[in-house]
Amino acid sequence: MKNILIDVEVNKEMFGRLKGMPGVNVKTIEISEDERYISPDTVRDVNYLFCSVPCTNFKDMEALEFIQIASAGYSQLFGLDLPAKNIAASNARGVFEVPIAEWCVSMMVNLARDLRGMVRNQESSVWDRSAKFQTEIRGSLVGIWGYGAIGRETARLCNAMGMRVYAMDRAEGVGTQNPNVYRIEGTGDPEARIPEKIFIPGQEREFLSDLDFLILSMPLTNKTKGMVGDAEFALMKPSSYLLNPARGPLIDENSLIKTLREGKIAGAAIDTHFYYPMPADHPLWRFPNVIMTPHISGSSLSPHFTYRVWDIFVQNVERLMSGRPVLNRLSDGELNGE
């Protein structure tokens, strides 16, 4: 018998499927997306945990074998020493690819047509038909830095809209998508056929210098923190835009502010931030060429999110019970922040 603890919002359909499995005992607790203490009596015998963030007294989870988190980012697992404890972990990769890819496309259109400027004109009753409000994104060159599930679905939409795509990923490059990664049918670029060119670290100049849009689509790790700074911005065209639906600290904060103030790029769309919430006096609020959204690109409150993340977890429980590889398993290196 495997004991399962649920610390996420319940999807009734998938919860019923889980409870109907033989050999499992399922219990739920009041959900939280923040770190908190949970009674040792509640967690001591748990074998499989489904949560957003592990409890602060994680050491009390003496029987734990597997963690499923409800986010694509997994920095909340750093420091738990999961590989040494032989605890497997999976993230929610693939759940967010559709809404984030749609956010990216909408932000590119809004930036290119200066939607913020048009809204300001509307609020001031200004009739302005300037050419800057009539730009097309078709034919633009999009660089996707991090070619996982989100990057591949974004590439598919860009390709469908007549945009060109470059991709940049880890040293081993990108190829066929791992079959044990969760994917919504009909989405993505599983064979990595869409990018005109694929770059690896060390080729930043070649990757960045011709882009019209740079989209960040990689996890935050010790290696990726601050990966976009003065040197990278200096390689970009003054007419290019930056989009960050991934993690705020991928970008050096001071460098971004300086780059925007000096007009070294045309603007940015930012969904993930340096602070939560962003302070009201933070300068990024006031740039007329910056779109700030409050970490909603993944649409975790949409009716689709709960079903999809539960679909991953239920499939993973089925796989664990039958001895098969789980979906979205994080490697030892990833769990160690590499």
Point out poorly predicted stretches: none
Strand content: 5-15%
Task: Report the sheet with the most strands, covering strand number, pairing sense and barrel closure.
Answer: 7 strands, parallel
CATH class group of the largest domain: Alpha Beta
Shape: elongated
Query: Treating each run of at least 4 consecutive H or I residues as one helix, how many helices?
Result: 10
The radius of gyration over CA amounts to 21 Å
The domain count comes to: 2
CATH superfamily of the largest domain: NAD(P)-binding Rossmann-like Domain
The N- to C-terminal Cα distance equals: 34 Å
The CATH architecture of the largest domain can be given as 3-Layer(aba) Sandwich
Question: What key phrases describe this protein's structure?
Answer:
alpha/beta, Rossmann fold, 2 domains, seven-stranded parallel beta sheet, five-stranded parallel beta sheet, 10 helices, elongated
Which secondary structure elements does this structure contain, and how are they paired or packed?
Layout: E1 2-7, H1 12-19, E2 24-28, H2 40-43, E3 48-51, E4 66-69, E5 88-90, H3 97-112, H4 115-123, E6 141-145, H5 149-160, E7 164-168, E8 197-199, H6 204-208, E9 213-216, H7 230-235, E10 241-244, H8 253-261, E11 267-270, E12 290-292, H9 303-322, H10 332-335
